[in-house]
Amino acid sequence: MSASVESTNATPYGTLPPTAAASARKPISLPRLLEMHARGEKLTMLTAYDATFAAVADAAGVECILVGDSLGMVCQGLSSTMGVTLQTMCYHIESVARGLRRAQATAWLIGDLPYGSYHESREQALRSAAALMQAGSHMVKLEGGGWTADTVRFLVERGIPVCAHLGLTPQTVHALGGYRVQGKTQESAALMKRQAHELQDAGAALLVLEMVPAALAAELTQELTHCATIGIGAGKDTAGQVLVLHDMLGINLGKMPKFVRNFMTGAPGVKEAMQAYVAAVKNGSFPDNAQHAW
Fold first, then answer.
1. I want to staple 139 with a disulfide (CB 3.0 to 4.6 A). Which of 83, 161, 196, 263 is the partner?
2. pTM score
3. Would 11 be classed as within a structural domain?
4. Does residue 133 fall inside a structural domain?
């Protein structure tokens, strides 16, 4: 490919979308996300695994792009996220970061620490997190409570922003007994609350709550004063929402999860579907607790 073609967004192989009024948009930073949360504005997050979809999501107004280890299932055809490697995560984060840079995007980029990349020791977690940051992440995400709080603190003290993840944690799906709602009993809800506060105290700035009863997620959102909750199947009262890109575009060959809405329905294109998602989260019409939550 010639240098002249490489230097522009327009190529024979596709065009990255221009970001509307890119120069007038402020880059999303962690303090800005927390300020938005403090004033009651809902946060939006979508997964993306390549340059083009990431740039389109940014142009649609999505604040946070998550390069999730869900790519193992939706891109690689794996049966779970546990086969995703650190090398694979770095490859996709690099692709997304390039797409965002070329589109003069403003989104906050989060990278998943894959299974086995942070479980051995805090030092292993630091090496893995550093690799994701060098690939282009602004923040790393890890799953679980309990022992992970010590890892979160270790990373945050070394300047690496962390998003935690409680509820259904796909990397431990076998231990959980399958893809099922977490925190339904009084005992499990109390444990999740304790773990959430430990993660906040350790320095986690964001907390994904996956497949958690809406009432419990709402309580946690109110209790966590300096950690913004991001729900997926956790009701409408979390600080923000996240969906897997393929799910919200209706690209799902199996049964659609209860917490998903197909935003391609009635949309003329992918960008418009993403804009509809952003608007629905911001105005509170998605998720609908009666349809999308427990």
1. 161
2. 0.93
3. no
4. yes
Q: Residue written as tokens 């399958």?
A: 178
Return the structure tokens found at 112: 């998943």
29 phi/psi in degrees, rounded to 5: -120, 170
- Identify whether 210 is a catalytic site residue: yes
> Quick check: is 234 in a domain?
yes
Coil, strand or helix at 92: helix
Q: Which domain holds residue 187?
A: 30-292
CA 96, CA 109: separation in Å to the nearest integer?
8
18-73 pLDDT, tens digit each: 655 555 778 999 999 999 999 999 999 999 999 999 999 999 999 999 999 999 99
The 10 Å Cβ neighbour count of residue 287 is: 26
**Helices and strands: H and E segment counts in the chain:** 13, 10
Structure tokens belonging to residue 210: 């996956």
Cβ(154)–Cβ(204) below 8 Å: no
Q: What is the CATH number of the domain that holds 73?
A: 3.20.20.60
Helix boundaries (H) for 103-213: 122-135, 148-157, 173-176, 186-202
Cα–Cα distance list, 224 to 8, 64, 212, 244 (Å): 44, 20, 16, 25
Q: Where are the alpha helices (DSSP H) in 24-147?
A: 30-38, 51-59, 71-74, 86-102, 122-135
